[in-house]
User: What shape does this take?
Amino acid sequence: MRILVVNAGSSSLKLRLLDGADVLTAEDLPATDDPEPGLARFLEGAPQPDAAGHRVVHGGPEFRESVVIDDEVAGRLQALSDLAPLHNPPALAAIAALRRLRPEVPAVACFDTAFHATLPEAAGLYPVPWAWTERWGVRRYGFHGLSHAWASRRAAELVERPPGELRLVSCHLGAGASLAAVAGGRSVDTTMGFTPLEGLMMATRSGTVDPGLVLWLQSDRGLAAGDVEQALDRQSGLLGVSGVSADMREVEQAAGSGNRRAALALDLYHHRLRAGIAAMAAALGGLDALVFTGAVGEHSATVRAAACEPLGFLGVDLDRARNQAVADDDADVSAGGARARALVVHAREDLEIAREVRRVLS
Assistant: This one.
């Protein structure tokens, strides 16, 4: 089955045509208000797909697993746009464009929130007035689920143990960043919540801050809600603290050249990452493997080392030479005899989406 994977984000449109695990053709396009012309050009130069899979960031309270897209589902997805205003609308535009261009191709919506539908209530709910939870669906949804699902399954292959036996902490570290505690192949805790703004410090996102700070900025300093959202989502994180860049490579380079704020940004990033990993391990009652994925997780030996160094009490012991030598292949960077394995897994959300398409359509 040839599967077209459509990953429409706020800044890019990633297209992959897969035949099994092989990529037949691929293209990354800049995001535009109308994805149809770029999608049409890609389809003209590619073999006809048998099916399509769309990454949709937020499935809300009703979409707890992947689903075939029809008119009814498309309408229900439209109603969820306010939950992820930066992420869902581009996906919906791509869905509509492909339905116009290839109406005969069955398409499946694959949700980043679906992997976290298994969160127990203690991890998934907020201690807020019950009416918010009951009437408005206020809860922790979690994100990066497609990446966490792939990383946890691939990690089981690398350590040659069944997924059902493993307690894993998956670290998706990219422009956005989140952790997932995975027990027996199921998500039992995660760091992102109602929106992708909660949790770790990220490239331009603050991650978790005191909600009282947000209220103070609005009531005492007169900032509009939109201004606070813009600041916390686009002007914080590595960029906001370092003043240099949102790119981890550039921040690390600046810190190495003596830039104090860049060094401080790294300290904050590492501190919150270590604390998050320890919290996820506590939710699991122990740790069998720590998995790094995403652009930063795969390519920054410094971040991996800083994350692992104080986690010896969890059985994590990094082999520095292996850690520095990571290239394009998935790798075990643990020291010999480590109780908890440290792994680097290259993100393959495209394969996870294709897997979901095959599962749903079969």
